[in-house]
Structure formats: C-alpha cells, structure tokens
Write the structure tokens for this entry.
Amino acid sequence: MTITDLETLPEVLGWQLLSPPPPPRNPLSPRERQILDLVTGGRTHKEVAFDLGLSDATVRVLYSRAMKKLGRAKRLRTPSDR
C-alpha cells in the first residue's frame, strides 16, 4: 500500500477525515459570562456586586470559576489596579 492509497482510503470508505471540534469542557454559565464581561470591562468586584445585587464574595467566586474554566489563573493587572 502506498502513501497515496492511505490518503484516499478514508474517502473510499466514506470516512470523515476531520471531525467537528468537541464542545467546550466547561462552558461558562450565563452569570459567569455576565460577571466576566463586567470585570474585564473595567468594573471592580464591588461595583459588579452592587449593580447585580450580589455579595462581593459571590462575585469573586463566580469570577474565579470563570477564569479557571478558561484556563486563566489570575486577573491581569491594569494601570488603575496599582
């Protein structure tokens, strides 16, 4: 069997060469997405908590979970954080 035969074998057998990408392992919940959008947009955890009627601790937990799901460990520092 040649390389050309191996390359055309899936087509002959009706195999699909590329499978669709798997779904995300840990998709963000709507609340995690909302908090992530607000915090990365420049809002503080306290501001987000006040606006959404949540505790600061709840916002921090949800933000932390979202960052972990995205494979990020820490919040990026901006000049206003210093």
The chain has a mean pLDDT of 76. Residues 24-74 form a domain with the Arc Repressor Mutant, subunit A fold (CATH 1.10.10.10). The two ends are 65 Å apart (CA to CA).
